[in-house]
């Protein structure tokens, strides 16, 4: 648990972002202002991790790159799916400096808030460097990027809260099977290629592009549950019975200096810009995009692949029956402690997947003169295929609008997204384009600032990109 908490705090320190990772992961500031809508409208280096085919949507000789200047791309995306700030202050803030004594109504309300389980998450990434160029119609577009990604998610069932609030009620079984913990820090070295398949004259707006991204992945740390089957029951004589069948894995770079209980040699931490990886892997993205007239369409599948963790790898497990009815029985106490804490052992390696996601999008660019300025509308559907950090099996749909009323007025962006776990979220953003550089500012959860005390999650982002047309 102490390593999990350490990793969560590490994630909080690494909230820099420039690319999508998973269906709910961090994203560039422009798309964040559109509530995450990006699949058919991302371009240049902002296409990396979303749809590599969009690299070739622009005409020839488009060059863009992102660095720490004029300022780095930074984003924070964290929160829960069950507690607002008001709820946190009420249940955990105390009263006049003293702990709040919860009434039965308070306990019932808390249990209602968490009746479908509770999720706490953080997603973060840092783009160390990104560069893209659309060379020509014959050659295609190429992009390279180095990105760090950190993410963590903790899911616990309602039974946890019920046990904490009401204790081990006689005759009641607490089932913790849905408990899930995942956290990691990885680095992607990505190389992307895309090209237009339609041969047409230079004035044509019709394009059909395909793209692929290959990723060499270095994993620096991972901790996660693999299997949780856990239940306890309090009998009529207050005896506690139950079963445990738990298994989890972890791996850490030597840079962390993590020392397991079974380690006999003291580990020393050693940090640098390129720490030794704890795992290595490979991933790939495939995408296709089309434009015809004012319409744009996009489909991609991202992060197919896996990571093999083989440095400082350990397995944590607990298996067996629980029985406890006598505090003075040392043998029962020792057995109970063993079942709760489990055992750890060194292993050679284990594997995890990547946050594989299907991305579908459509957009419509209004012609000049139809409305004042320039107006772009876009729609996305994202479907994750696992529950790794930054991802969810629940689909996410979003709708965004980008409007530039006049040449001297910045881009104004807004959008709405919906996911079953988190409900509806309102994105708002601002973009300044001065030709050779773009500046972007956004939040995908503007309700967090308008109704701060009622918000369950918070995100904000700013970023910049250089470009040469």
Category from helices, strands and their pairing = mainly beta
By CATH, the architecture is named: Beta Barrel
- Helix count, per DSSP? 7
> How many domains in all?
1
Largest sheet: 20 strands, antiparallel
Low-confidence stretches are: 1-19
Number of strands: 20
Report the β-strand fraction as a percent range. over 45%
Q: Quick one: overall form?
A: globular
What does this structure look like?
With 469 residues, this protein is mainly beta. It has a single domain, classed as Porin (Beta Barrel). The protein is 13% helix and 48% strand. It is built from 7 helices and 20 strands. The protein has a 20-stranded antiparallel β-sheet that branches. Mean pLDDT is 83; it is low at 1-19.
Secondary structure elements and their pairing?
Elements: H1 2-13, H2 29-33, E1 62-66, E2 74-80, H3 85-92, H4 104-113, E3 118-136, E4 140-156, H5 158-166, E5 173-175, E6 180-196, E7 207-234, E8 240-252, E9 279-292, E10 295-309, E11 314-324, H6 330-341, E12 343-346, E13 350-353, E14 357-365, E15 374-384, E16 396-404, E17 411-419, E18 423-433, E19 437-443, H7 447-450, E20 457-468
Antiparallel strand pairs: 1-3, 1-20, 2-3, 2-20, 3-4, 4-6, 5-7, 6-7, 7-8, 7-9, 8-11, 9-10, 10-13, 10-14, 11-12, 14-15, 15-16, 16-17, 17-18, 18-19, 19-20
